[in-house]
Amino acid sequence: MGIVAGLDSSSGFTRIVVCDTDTGAVLRQGYAPHPVEPKAAEVDPQAWLLSLGEAASGGLLEGVQAIGVSAQQHGLVPLDRQGALVRPALVGNDKRAQVAAADLVEGFGGRQAWAEAVGCVPQAAQPVAKLRWLARSEPEAAARVATVLQPHDWLVWQLLGRPARRTTDRGAASGTGYWSAGSGAYRPDLVELALGHQAALPEVLGPAEAAGMTPEGLLISAGTGETMAAAFGLGLALGDAVVSLGASGSVMAVHHEALADPSGMITSFADATGMHLPVVSTSNAVRALRGTAEMLGVEGLQELSALALKSTPGASGLVLLPYLEGERTPNLPHTAGTLSGLRRESMKPEHLARAAFEGMLCSLADALDVLRGRGVQVRRVFLLGAAAELPAVQAVAPAVFGAQVVVPQPADYAALGAARQAAWALGVSQGTLSPQAPPAWQGASAQVFEAGEELAMGQAVRQQYTATREQLHPGAFA
């Protein structure tokens, strides 16, 4: 039996799982918070190493043969010619680069030109926009930048003893804004456009390749971003999509090719297996539920869920367009939410509660349809986030999405994905696994919900929602 480890360095903590290489069974786990505020926009990367060391204490990694690294995405770690930090790392939640992103869109010929070049339109979170912000706001620091890494790249480099060779993987690279998931190549001209000069970029490894060996003889796999690691840990395949229910929402699916989308609604990531992960995001998801709970004076989402289930599909004609913070999908940044269909018989708390759940899920179904409209197959939807456990979500989602809904048991899926990648790279190095076929670990434990007889009712709910959206925002998805 072999043993591998996967570590996930998120914005606020490090989680480590130690797994059996053949089955994926978790043998040991470690956890440590980062010694920084998770909402901080700038971080000394040494904090990530301190957290990693604490999480791995007590002999957690004893007997481990290989390690995979997953880390927060969209961070920028700028290094000088000697490999020293130019300034603290800029992490994904830094919003200061919004103007810089808009400048880049205009400076490179518009949204379609960017979509065709790298599969996405620059946004504030992406490293390419952070480079432009650095060049404009801290020109002296920008002039010293010789190498650009992301958090997982930097951690892998540190684990390997800071070798001359620096690496990344296609998943993390696809979120930079200067690597194309379609062509599998960097666009150094976009780095120069953003930073003002060229910078060295890490070598992009294939899914089963190893980044190297540590001085202690541990194999380190390519690593990847948290999104890609979580998808790998969940065991997603063609026909699978993931709907994440946070304050905002996102829809991600496995696809066989990169998608260029001039509208900017689709961001085309690469995954950790050689496939692609097109993502569509919404600005509003659980925030619509929380707002409705406050409006009705109910205690929390569980009570709101119970109230919603006292209503019937269609909420007696009430429709909530949950665009409370504007919306990204469709692109309506300055709009507001709308409650439509008020009649005397519909003015009851349970109908408004039901309309909130239906509105949130119909909005995410719109996002799913953006992917379906580009040929992405969706036969099964994984629901993630605490709200996925709500009975009202589980009752409404299968019919509204028109697909089987899977609610996985809570687990450290990003760390599990990193461990599975480590097992793959280890197996390839030992000649026991093919570079084309990852280890067949047991899938996530989950509840499964079918649309069944409710499918027709779900279609009616979607039609009611779509008619209201088109009346208020005609051609929003044109």
Automatic annotation (TrEMBL):
Pfam families the UniProt entry points to: FGGY_C, FGGY_N
Domain Carbohydrate kinase FGGY C-terminal: 241-426
Residue span, Carbohydrate kinase FGGY N-terminal domain: 4-223
Presence of keyword Kinase: yes
InterPro entries, A to Z: ATPase_NBD, Carb_kinase_FGGY, Carb_kinase_FGGY_CS, FGGY_C, FGGY_Carb_Kinase, FGGY_N
Gene3D superfamilies: 3.30.420.40
Keywords noted in UniProt: Carbohydrate metabolism, Kinase, Transferase, Xylose metabolism
Keyword Calcium among UniProt keywords: no
Cross-referenced PROSITE patterns: FGGY_KINASES_2
GO molecular function annotation: kinase activity
PANTHER family associated with the record: SUGAR KINASE, XYLULOSE KINASE
Homology family: Belongs to the FGGY kinase family.
Name of the protein described by the UniProt record: FGGY family carbohydrate kinase
Lineage, opening ranks: Bacteria, Bacillati, Actinomycetota, Actinomycetes, Kitasatosporales
